[in-house]
Amino acid sequence: MQKKFSLIILFFTCWSVATAQVNIGSNDVPEGFSVLQLTGTGGGLRVNQLDSAAITALENSINASGKLAAAQGLLVYNTTEGCYNMFRNKTFQSLCATSQAAFSTDSTLICGSLQIFGEYMEGQSLNNSNYLTLDVLCTKAGSYTFAGTVRNEDGANGYAFSKSDVLLEAGRHTLTIYGSGTPVYPGFDSLFISINQNQYRCSSGMISVDAAPERAIFRIVSAKQVGHHFTTNVNYSERPDTNTVEVTIRVPLNQGGLQTELTAHINGLDFKYTPEEGSFWEGPEGYLNTVYYCNGTPTDAPDDCDPNLLSSGQEEVGDTTAREYRIVLNCTGNPVTYGWHAGSVKGLSGKIGRMVYSPPVNLLFLSRTIRILGVGDDLYNIADSTTNHNLAWTMLREPGNYIYKDSLNPGQYIENFKFTKNYNNQPAETFINNADIIYFGYPRHSGDYATLVNFVKNKHGVLLFAGEGSLTSDINMIKAITGETVTMSNTGGAGMVSSFIDVPNDPIFNNSRFGSLEGKHWGGDGGGNNSITSTTPSRFVVYSRHSGTGGANCFRDNQLGFIYIGDGGFASGMIGSNYSNSDPFNIDGTTKLPAPQTRYSPPVWNSLFIANSVWWAIDFLRKNGKID
User: Within a 10 A sphere around the Cβ of 240, how many other Cβ atoms?
Assistant: First the structure.
C-alpha cells in the first residue's frame, strides 16, 4: 500500500513539472495564462491569516534574510486590519484604502522642504497657480488627509489647502497641495499643517496677502443705444456686438482705481461690460477727454469749485478734474416684446461698492418684417405697385402708418413690409409658404381654396378674402375654415353702398391709430357683391349687411384669422379715376392715410376698413406667436 501511494505522488509530481500548470477542483486544462487555477462553486482561496504583530515579525524576518526580491508580492491576510497585506519593497502594505498612513512626528523634513507658490490678493480667488509642496516621511503606507489652514490676527482668512490621497509605500514622498477660497484680509497669514493625526507649525509657513486695489469712484453721465434698432425673434447671443449700449463714465483724477463690471437688463436682453482683470480707470490712455465740473456741471473755472464735492449722491470725488471714458456693453439674449423699453446701466463704485446708475436709456424694439401676399389682378391687388393702381400699396408701405418712422406715431412698431404679388393665372400655393397676411382679390385661380384653408387653420396666418364670383367655392371655403354652413347670393349693381354696423369695442371697428368706422360706409366696385342669405353664424362678427338681402356681406371669424368681404374690387383704387361706381379705395395724397372716396354717394371708407384690418391682423399674428 505504501508503495502504491508513493507511485501516485511521484506521478502527480512528474505531471506538474512537465506541464507547469495546475487546475485544482477540475480536470479541465487550465487557461494558458494560469500557473495555478482554482475551479469550483463552493469555496475560495484562503491565504495565511496573521495579526499585525505577526506580520511585523514576518516583515523583519524577510528583511533579515536578505531575500527581498523573492518576497515581493507575498500575500497575507491581516486579521487586525481586516484586510489583505502585500509585501512591497521592504514592508507589508495594506490593500485597503481604509487603512491610514503613519508619518514621522518630526517637523524638520516638512518645514525644511515647504515651498509656497502663487500670488495672494485680497478678494481674488485662488486658482491652480496657488499651491504648496513639502516632503513627508511615511512610516506606514495608507490613506492620508492633508489640511493646511491659514490664520492671521483677525482669525481664519477665507482660504485653505487640502488634499486626500493614498500612499502605497512607506518612505519619503513629495506632496503637492492646491489651495482654494478667497483671501478676505491683506497682511501675513500663518500656515498650520495637519496630516492625519499629526500637527505641524513651520516658521517658513508665512503667506503674504496683498491688499486689493480699490475700485474707481465714478458716475455714469450718459447712456445711449448704438447701431440699428433691435428686432424681435432675433437671438442676439449669436451677434452680441451688432447692437450695443454705450455709456460715458466720469472718474475724478485722484479717485482712479480698478474697473468694475457694468450691466443692464432691458426687455429680455442682457448688456454687459466685463473689464480685464487688473485694468484701471485712470489716465492718460483710454480717456475721451478731461473736463472740470462743479456739482456735476462742466465749467471753465475749476478754481472756483469746492474741492470736496459730492457728485450726484455718490462718494466724495475729492477733485474738480475728471476724465471721461466711453464704454461699450455688448448684448445677449432674446427680446421679449416690441416697442420702446427703458433701463439703466449699473455698476459698483468705490471700495464700499455703492451701486451707481446711468440715466435711463431708451431702446427701440421692432417686430420683424411682415410678409404680405396679394392675390389677384393688379387693379385689385394691395401688394401691386403698378402705376395708377397703387393706393392700397402706398398706404401700407408709408413709414409712420405701420412702419416705424422717427417721431411719427409708430403704431405697431413694424420693421417693414415685404410685398409679393400674384396674378390670376398663377396658383396661390406657389407663393404662400412665407406669407403672414394674404389679401385675396378679383379674379382668382380655381385651385386656391384648399391652400387658403390650410394657411388659416394650420399656419395661423390672416386671410382677407374679397369674394366675388363662384358662390359655391366661397361657401365651401367658409365651411372648410370655420365649420359653418351658409347659403349666399350675389346681387346688387355697380357701386352699391353698404353701411358699417356699430360693433362696440371691436379692434377693427374702433381703431386708435386710423379711426372709427362709426357712421361710415363702404362701396362696391363695378359689379354686385356676395352676402349670406341664411342665418349668420354666431361666431361671425358682422361689420355690414347687404342693403337688398339684409345678409352679412362683410364679417370676421372670431376665432381664426379670417375676414370675408363680399366684393372682389373692394381695394381697387386707381389714381385719376372719375367713375362714380368703381375704384372705391382712396387715401390722402399727403399723409397717405385713409381718406373717403367722395365720388360715391354717400362717401365710402374702404381704405379705412383695410387699414384697420391689417392693424388687427398684425396683432393677431403676435398673439398666435407668428412674429413676436
Answer: 17
Report which residue type is found at 498.
S
Q: What is the DSSP letter of 436?
A: S
Which residues neighbour 133 within 8 Å (Cβ) at sequence distance 6 or greater?
113, 114, 115, 117, 174, 175, 176, 177
Task: Give 599's strand partners.
Answer: none
Of the CA atoms within 13 Å of residue 176, those in its CB half-sphere come to: 5
Rounded Cα–Cα distance for residues 209 and 190 (Å): 11
The answer to whether 253 touches 283, Cβ cutoff 8 Å, is: yes
**237/334 Cα distance (integer angstroms):** 8
Could you tell me the three cell numbers for 72? 515581493
Contacts of 483 (CB under 8 A, 6+ apart): none
* Residue 5 pLDDT class (50, 70, 90 cuts): very low
Q: In the predicted model, is pLDDT for residue 390 greater than 70?
A: yes
Instruction: Report helix, strand and coil shares of the chain as percent, to nearest 5.
Output: 15, 40, 45
| Alpha carbon distance 297, 372 (integer Å) | 52
Cβ neighbours of residue 13 closer than 8 Å, sequence gap 6 or more: none
Report the Cα 41 to chain-centroid distance in Å.
59
**Stated pTM of the model:** 0.60
CA distance 470 to 465: 13
Strands 462-466 and 437-440, sheet pairing: parallel
The answer to whether 292 touches 389, Cβ cutoff 8 Å, is no
Among the listed residues 363, 107, 70, 108, the one whose alpha carbon sits nearest the alpha carbon of residue 245: 363
Give which of 17, 24, 59, 22 is closest to 40, Cα–Cα. 24
Instruction: Find the helix packing angle between 448-457 and 471-482, rounded to 10°.
Output: 20
Q: What is the Cα–Cα distance from 325 to 356, expressed in whole angstroms? A: 16
Separate counts of helices (H) and strands (E) for the chain: 8, 41
**Dihedral pair phi/psi, residue 254, rounded to 5°:** -90, 10
C-alpha cell of residue 308: 470736496
Local structure of 535: helix, strand or coil = coil
540-545/552-557 β-pairing:
antiparallel
**One-letter identity of residue 504:** P
Task: Write out pLDDT tens, residues 112-147.
Answer: 999 999 999 888 899 999 999 999 999 888 889 999
